[in-house]
Amino acid sequence: MRRNDRRDLGLLLLRLGAGGALAAHGAQKLFGWFGGHGIEGTGQFMESVGYVPGKTSATAAGLAEAGGGTLLALGLATPAAGAAAAGAMAGAAAVHAPNGFFNQGGGYEYAATLGLTAAGLAITGPGRLSLDHLLGHAVNRGWMIPAAFAATAAGTAVVVGARARRLRKAKEGEQEALFEEEYME
Predict the structure, then answer these.
(1) Burial of 139 by CB count in 10 Å (0-12 exposed, 13-18 middle, 19+ buried)?
(2) Global confidence as pTM
(3) Which residue of 6, 32, 46, 137 pairs with 38 in a disulfide if CB–CB is 3.0 to 4.6 A?
(4) What's the Cα-to-Cα distance from 130 to each of 40, 77, 81, 102, 166, rounded to whole Å?
C-alpha cells in the first residue's frame, strides 16, 4: 500500500469514527435516539448548566454535532463541518471543565478529544476517499478553513461567555462557609 493510500485510509477512519460519534450524540439531543433525551430533556439539562434558552441551545448543539459529524464522516464541506463540531465540543468542554480533565471523573477529556479531532480534520482535509474529493473540493477551499473557524470561534465565545456570566451572577448571592464543618464540632 502506498503512502498516499495509507493517508487517505487513515483520514477516512478518523472521519468515520469521530464523525459517527458526533452524529450519534447530536441524534440523542435532537431526536432522543440512542438513549438520549431529545430536545425537551436536553433543553432542560442545558438550562440547568447555564445555556439559556435551553431548547435553542439543545437545538444548536444537536445540529452542530449531528450535522457536523455526518458531514465529517462523509468528507463533505469539511472545513465547516469540523469547525461546527469543534465549537459544539468547546461548549461541552466548558460544562465539564470544573470536573478536571479525565472523563471518568466527569471531566472534559472526551469533549476535547472529539473537538480537537474535528478541528484537525477541518484543517487537514478529508483525503481522497471523500465526497469533497469526488465533487472537486467545491465546498472545501483553503479560504473556507479560516472563515469557518473565525465564525465558529466568534459564536462559541459569545455563547460560552454568556453562560459564564450567568453562572457568576448566580453565585454572587451565595455565601461560602467560613469554616469547614468538621472543625465546627
Answers:
(1) middle
(2) 0.88
(3) 32
(4) 35, 10, 13, 33, 42
Grid coordinates representing 19 are: 464523525
Cα angle 123-82-75, degrees, rounded to a multiple of 5: 85
Radius of gyration over every alpha carbon of the chain, rounded to an integer in angstroms: 19
Q: Are 34 and 22 in contact (CB under 8 A)?
A: no
Contacts of 52 (CB under 8 A, 6+ apart): 46, 162, 163, 166
pLDDT in tens, 4-58: 899 999 999 999 999 999 999 999 999 999 999 999 999 999 999 999 999 999 9
Helix axis angle, 109-124 to 54-74, nearest 10°: 50
CA distances from 107 to 7, 44, 71, 135 (A): 32, 21, 27, 39
Q: Which position has the grid cell 498516499?
A: 4
